[in-house]
Specification:
This protein is mostly helical. It contains four helices and no strands.
């Protein structure tokens, strides 16, 4: 995520995802985008491989468990 959503935005990324607060604000959008099918134009990341099933599960679990800062 940091390649585009870092402190300096790149590739028309609309928001920075550096701090816990920033990530928490966009958590539902992040989950929606990483769970898209591989041929969906809104899938994140837009290039390179799709996140692994394990990585997606970790993010979704973090969200459902209250987006803890740990």
């Amino acid at each position: 995520c940091q390649n585009c959503h870092g402190s300096t935005l790149a590739n028309n990324a609309p928001m920075s995802l550096v701090t816990h607060t920033q990530i928490s604000l966009f958590a539902s959008s992040i989950s929606s985008r990483i769970n898209k099918s591989a041929n969906d134009s809104q899938l994140m990341p837009p290039s390179g491989p799709k996140l692994s099933v394990e990585d997606i599960a970790t993010i979704d679990t973090w969200i459902t468990e209250g987006k803890l800062n740990n």
